[in-house]
Amino acid sequence: MKYLMAIDAGTGSIRAVIFDTKGNQVSVAQKEWTHLEEEGVANSMSFDFEKNWALTCECIKESLERAGLNGEDVVALSATSMREGIVLYDKEGKELWAVANVDARASNEVKYLKENFAGIEEEFYQLSGQTFALGALPRIMWLKNNKPDVYAKVANISMIGDWILAKLCGVIATDPSNGGTTGIFSLNNRDWQNDMATKVGIKDDIFPPCYEVGTFIGNITQKAFAETGLSTNTKVVTGGGDVQLGSAGLGVVEAGDVAVLGGSFWQQVVNIPSQTLPPKDMGIRVNPHVVAELSQAEGITFFSGLVMRWFRDAFCDMEKLEAKEKGVDTYTILEEKASKVPVGSHGIMPIFSDSMKYGKWYHAAPSFLNLSIDPEVCNRASMFRSLQENAAIVSSINLDKIKEFTGVEIDAIVFAGGASKGALWSQILADVTGCKIKIPKVTEATALGAAMSAGVGAGIYNSFTEAAKELVIWDKEYLPNMENKKIYDELKLKWQSAYEVQLKLVDDNITNSMWKAPGL
């Protein structure tokens, strides 16, 4: 029996997951990690590559031990990671400096670029699909301005998943889906766009080879063998960004495929040809997909899952006790009660994440509108349902924006992540969008996508498309109630008008934004 390993470097943890070649999970080992603010550097979030490499090695060894396998049993491995996190190296390939994806230290550099290079963000966005808010250029510029001695030594750059593979096989390389999120990239060519760095005065010779996802790049080195227990015969294969590989793990691998990923944040992704130009209003992010010749238009909804967790923990102690007595999840109890609330939640409007406005991205202050002092109308069940409806409505608005510039007609959506476990939430998403909702029987989509990449590189699968068709199994489907959709269409328009008013309160310094992009 052959086995594949996926290493998943998320924002909050590192995991090593072993699959067999039929896509069955064999074992998993996970370690939490933290990213610390540098002393005296506001909004920084450094990536501790020394400590985190030790945690990665522990996960690899534990996953082998739990599966009862030797390193020789793993024919190939790949890695996926949080996007936007970067690692910089010296000419010997030794790490110099690294930051996690949520690092936002470069606000001044973002402002500098916008003020001193008129129109350059728009120009770069049309090529890369990325803005400066999450990109690598302002962060590298911060290093040049604040740590010139370190900057002078920089000879190479990679993403965090690439760093793991480099530690294992000694080859620094990247792939389009991960490298593309630096913003120093061409969607059309699926490769680095070095002259972007040249134009803003940053080193333009630090970009490693960019290979398609699923490319064999080397074998486990002797050093990595000693550190991890993996075999020097194990193939190391390029991986990719977590959302894109997660999409592949959900079977979203062909042009026109659509997914809503319902986790702490929600992503709405639509597969489009690589030649598709990003929208002129810079409203939506566009990333290279893990499948060659495809990009993904991506909307992002902030904190949808985290808001639900806050609501549960802040207000629902009674439901927690009830759930404990019945031996079920608290969300199951809340959904059961919310299912008795009329469509539209008595007009309650949650104000949390806005629809995506990538070029000027900030949110109103968190709040609920249209609350009532009638406890039969306004209670935990109706507020809970309103949050579910709101997440679906904002997702629908983002999908509408994607349809406008891509021309893609959406009739089916793959729904995954923690939110897809809720039967009510899945039905609400169907009713709001008017689309069939497909729920895959996958618990580790991102890791499965990385395992698919390893399998492609090892020749076990011919392509991602073939692997997805073989490995992804469907669990449930939800069909839309079109009468409910009419109610949600009206609510969607009201919500958008209300949100604009709430944003003006932030503009007038009356309320505080829930989140603002660096540089605003």
Q: Give the integer mean of the pLDDT values.
A: 96
> What is the name of the CATH topology of the largest domain?
Nucleotidyltransferase, domain 5
Low-confidence stretches: none
- Number of discrete domains: 2
Q: Work out the helicity level.
A: 25-40%
State the CATH class of the largest domain: Alpha Beta
Our measurement of the CA-to-CA distance between the termini, rounded to an integer number of angstroms, reads 54 Å
The CATH architecture of the largest domain can be given as: 2-Layer Sandwich
> Helix tally?
18
What do these coordinates show?
By secondary structure, this protein is an alpha+beta fold. It has two domains: 241 residues, ATPase, nucleotide binding domain (Nucleotidyltransferase, domain 5); 231 residues, ATPase, nucleotide binding domain (Nucleotidyltransferase, domain 5, 2-Layer Sandwich), CATH 3.30.420.40. The chain has 18 helices and 21 strands. The strands form five sheets. Strands 1, 2, 3, 4, 10, 11 and 12 form a seven-stranded mixed β-sheet that branches. Strand 1 and strand 2 form a beta hairpin. The longest helix has 27 residues. The relative contact order is 0.13. The mean pLDDT is 96.
